[in-house]
Amino acid sequence: MGGHVADNSGMAEYSDCLSCAVERRAERPPREQVYLDPHWRVAHAFGTAQPGWLVVLPRRHVLALDELAPAEAAGLGPVLRAVTAALPAGR
Ligand SMILES: [Zn+2]
Question: 51 C-alpha vs ligand 1 centroid, how far in Å?
Fold first, then answer.
């Protein structure tokens, strides 16, 4: 069972959320931070059928895209475009 915990920014996060747990770390391994901006972090997934699988993660705890703030939503498209361009294999 997880619950809301307050971080230094005062924003609520779920204590049992892996993405938020990684976000709270002072230092992250390179695969957990392939890309980073104020709203989005891109991680290299492991144990996937295809090598190079990337995951785009919000920097704060959200359960669905409709919970994104306008600036977060506006930044998602450019991040998706950039990481897709970085992995052109298969085309
Ligand atoms: Zn979270």
Answer: 25
